Amino acid sequence: MKMWMAAGSVVLLFAWQGPQSQEAPAGFDGKSNGLVDEKTHQDDQVKFDAVEGVADGLGPLYNAQSCRECHQSPTSGGASQVSELRVGHLGPGGHFYNPDIPIARGTEIISGRTLVNDRAICPSAAFPDTEIQERVPESETVRTTRLSVNLLGDGFVEAMSDQSLIDLSQQQCKQTHGKICGLIIYVPVVESPGRASVGRFGWKDAHASLLSFSGDAYLNEMGITSKLFPDEVTKICNTAPEPNDTAGPDGLSDIDRFARFVRSSKAPARDVKLAETPKAKRGSTLFEKIGCTVCHMSTLTTAPAGTKINGGAFTVPAALGGKAFHPYSDFLVHDVGTGDGIVIPVFEHYGRAARQMPRECSPENFQKTRNRMRTPPLWGVRLRPRLMHDGGSTTFIDAILRHGGEASQAEHNFRHLARADQETVIEFLRSL
Question: How deeply is 99 buried, as exposed, middle or buried, from its count of CB atoms within 10 A (0-12, 13-18, 19+)?
Answer without folding.
Answer: buried
